[in-house]
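Before surveying the methods themselves, let us examine one representative protein, pairing a chain with its fold in token form.
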Amino acid sequence: MKDLFEQNPEQEIAELRTKLSLYQHQYYVDAKPTVSDLAYDRLMDRLIALEHENPQLTTPDSPSQRVGSDLSMDFPEVAHTVPVLSLDKAYSSEAVLQWIQRAETKGESALAFVVEEKIDGVSIVLYYEDGLLARAVTRGNGYIGNDVTGNIKTIGAVPLRLNQPLSIAVRGEVYLPKSEFALLNESMDIPYANPRNLAAGTVRRLKSIEAARVPLQVFVYEAFWDSDELTCKSHVEILALLKQLGFRVNPSLGVFATTQRKAQEAVALCGLQGVFAGGFSDIPSYIERLALQRGSLDHEIDGLVIKVDNLSLRDQFGYTGHHPRWALAYKFEAPEAETTVLSVDVQVGRTGRITPVARVKSVRVGGSVVSNITLHNQDYINLLELAIGDTVAISKRGDVIPAVERVVEKNTEGNTTYRLPEDCPVCSARLVSKGAHTFCPNPDCPDQILGRIGFFIGREQMDIEGFGPETVAYLVKKNLLQDIPGIYTIDYLQLVGEPGFGVKKASALASAVEKSKERPFRKVLVSLGIPDFGKKAADLLVSSGITSMHALLNLVDSAQSAPLLEIKGFGEKTVQSLFEALSDPVMRQRIELLGKAGLRFSEEPVDGGAKLPQVFSGQTWCITGSFEHFAPRSLAAVEIEARGGRTTGSVTGKTTHLLAGSGAGSKLDQAMVLGVQVIDEDRFLQMLVEQ
């Protein structure tokens, strides 16, 4: 028989592919391997050898394609042909029930809902053409993603060819099992913070042979098609179809209807096994049970997803610009962990504000490792009665910001509640208290100088390209820069020859500094770093008719606060902070020198914004990265706000959109974690004209 196969490699290859495909499905999807690793490896080695000898017989769906290539890839951008939107969110079972009640009023017939685990992984869309995997595309910004097909093919649970010749798009979540992550992380020089980060990094490996070494897994949960050959009428039928086609479907599933009997009937129709069926009143206890089981799972989940089961009703509910109206993400409460306070560091900010930061024994919470936690102020520390050496419970509020929740056990060293020092740890000036906070009153404190200048040149402020923290630190250390106005008096070409300063960098710095003089008055005003006075306040100020520094200083000098208090959105705290800062002789001198340097201290108010269609009403945007058509980025913010949107400097749970340009960094990562819709510059330009 062996001689016959050697004379007929096509037949042997076909038989090997059939066996290996079956073994892969049994191992990766069913989790019931039927052959040893050694026997499997021998069959795979034989297949690879035969395909190498007969390259014309190699096909895209061959099991050998999962081994990966050592050729470097790029990840071309690919437009999605199916909706890849974020989900609206709820944080309590009561909010889920309220959402269901609102959904019932919209539906014309009785509703059923499905509840699935929300896998904390990397979202992927698998596009099949006539049953063959054509491409695998990351979520990207929801409209355009990256083609990572070579790396996704290395995942054994992803079918390379379906058992039916269907053209279908399948959404899923790629993840790394927690047990595998623990083993891999032990061997890494720089451990990853959580399984999701390692999974995301693996999906974007330049060589698929490297991706193949990481045992990624996948669950699929949604499908889309255009033809009439599929007749699914419900979500549970879609899941049953996906399982039938060879996909790995999460067995943790709940189906709920007005009564348990109706839910059981819906489950019986689809043929799925082990599905929980209940009435709407069972949802809170079901959510509680899954939340308790979270820690025992071998995959990370950060919540649950509740969807309308009936597909025709989904069409009736439709979509917003951000999310489908027929689905909701239930987010778990921020998880807690216990750790020990090792020390407390004191940081001095640009305004002189003192911030205590707890250095704690590194601990994993909310899917990442925490070692530093802000303690805010002395009142917060007193409230906790926190001392060095205490065992504390910490959480990640909003699954993002680490916080000390309470002291679990007092230290045994006899340390008492931590007290902030009386003197500044940087310049030794005697600290002063203002309200709940403590300040260093010395404007020449080195950390304040670094903070002030760093804030002024930042991307969200004057956006002086190439003028980073290292450059600031070097110039301050060399006594070439003592305050903000010095930025505009330095002869940058004279720096050529200094460490890190070549002709190209010096020329670029000089050009960028000169270009920053074109920033509008409101941008300059915000960049001065006045406490409690940000971009929104500056916009309100200019819109109210106070369009110059001269007019603003006249109000301050004459103690006329009434015109400012009449501005909608201005409170007494904002006005007081503004008056106090602009009355400071050091600040006044700074303003005078900046005016002499040629910065813009007046502008005309933007008019007519309200006449534009308010297409961004109710939306909160964050802007990050560099743009071709919006330099500085504040130009994009003007477009958003003129159309009813709100802009913010950070990505939070309330952010609906992230406008991401080239070089987008941590804010893009945070947006992906929170499910914020990401918009690139081309799509944003389209949105501005689609009115």
Observations:
- Residues 1-5 have pLDDT under 50 and may be disordered.
- The longest strand covers residues 336-348.
- Residues 609-689 form a domain with the Rossmann fold fold (CATH 3.40.50.10190).
- The CA atoms of residues 659 and 679 lie 5 Å apart.
